Amino acid sequence: MGTNRTAVRRPAGRAVRAAAGVAIVSALALTAAACGGTPPPGDQPGGDTETAAGPDFTQRGPIKYVQGKDTSGNLQNQIDAWNKDNPDEKVELVELPDNADQQRAQMIQNAQTRSPEYTVLSLDVVWTAEFAANSYVDPLPADQFDMASFLQPTVDGATYFDQLYGIPGTGDGGLLYYRSDLLKEAGVAQPPTTWQEMKDACAAVKSKVSDAKDMGCFAGQYQKYEGLTVNVAEAVDSAGGALVDAQGVPTANSPQSVEGLNFLGESFADGTIPKEAITWQEEQGRQAFQDGKLIFHRNWPYAFALMSKSDGSSKVNGKFEVAPLPGKDGPGVSSLGGHNFAISSFAENKGTALDFIKYMTSAETQKANTLATSLAPTLTALYDDPELNKKYPYMPTLKASIESAKPRPKVVQYGDVTLAIQDATYPVMQGDSTAADAMNQLQPRLEQLIQR
């Protein structure tokens, strides 16, 4: 099935204008997980250009929306629809690199120079604590959004110390894409729920399907970037461990955490994961799967529409299905992904920015975007939408993945934390370190960074 590039029409009528600003919650740039409660006195979120009454959501005019590279091709359709209805408050798209680490760095650089250049930011869910505590983004008026209509994990990912700093734009849960045609030919009745079942299924396919004997078994994202942190966290969580537990305590060197990382290291060593996958990010893995080089592939929902194209760009159109990620002893656990719309503390025309966020997160816009791109919506009701379920039969699986997903460490110094995880675990993929040694190295570093 091909990608449906449905034009997005703005809902009739201008969005309700933002009311007065919200009270600012002071926040210290903590290095502990921000799960709730009241932060100690410290820097005031929202920058120093606005009063204690809160951000000024009355200013209107042109704005810039900033996000990573749009691989779907649909975003400009949405912006064009807004601009048609709002000629005096046009939105300009600013595309950053598709690498998440580079996106974060450029957004932080803009904030640290207090530049008004960026208005609405597309923030990875894991950046919320860092951007909020450092006053890079404004607190948002929750009473102007129906927050109960969003999937709860996506709301949690936009919240810091019980204050809303973003509105969930897209959700994300890791999914297992698999060659259903090859499994069927090999006599494998069901997709695997455990790592061993996945390896057994690969062995069956390679031995019974002549065209598959040289295919790779499984791959995710293992380049030394944020995707590696995601994949390591998923393996650790899927083995019953955690890099950082729910109370914000590092537990990287627990036996379960070591076992999760060991699965990845052993999979590279025994060929389950192809050697070349050590350089793969999302797009390289997607390309390998849709070129017919992999039996199983871990990726986000966006890949479904691209791999389903019928224009000749995908060799697996109509030949694959989607299942939950496998784990050590049963279904695995996804890392919570997704992006939130946030407003730069140093931006102008924040009234327009707030209305643009309302437009982008409306049910009509989210549904049209999901139909066109397969990106996961954040509104709960859309997972029961008949049209979406007809086009994407995996919607219940995706909803379950997001609802059961575990967040990466929610810490203010997330940039340092994710680099520490990558530095410690990448040598395991290369075969230069054992999982136990890597986790014993990582544990004290996390304890240092996450001071409670």
Automatic annotation (TrEMBL):
Regions that span the bilayer: none
Keywords annotated in UniProt: Signal, Sugar transport, Transport
Record-linked SUPFAM superfamilies: Periplasmic binding protein-like II (SSF53850)
Region Disordered: start-end pairs: 36-61
Cleavable signal peptide: 1-34
Keyword Cell wall biogenesis/degradation belongs to the record: no
Record bears the keyword Iron: no
CDD domains named among the record's database cross-references: PBP2_TMBP (cd14750)
Highest taxon, organism lineage: Bacteria
Database matches in Pfam families: SBP_bac_8
Protein family: Belongs to the bacterial solute-binding protein 1 family.
Protein name stated in the entry: Multiple sugar transport system substrate-binding protein
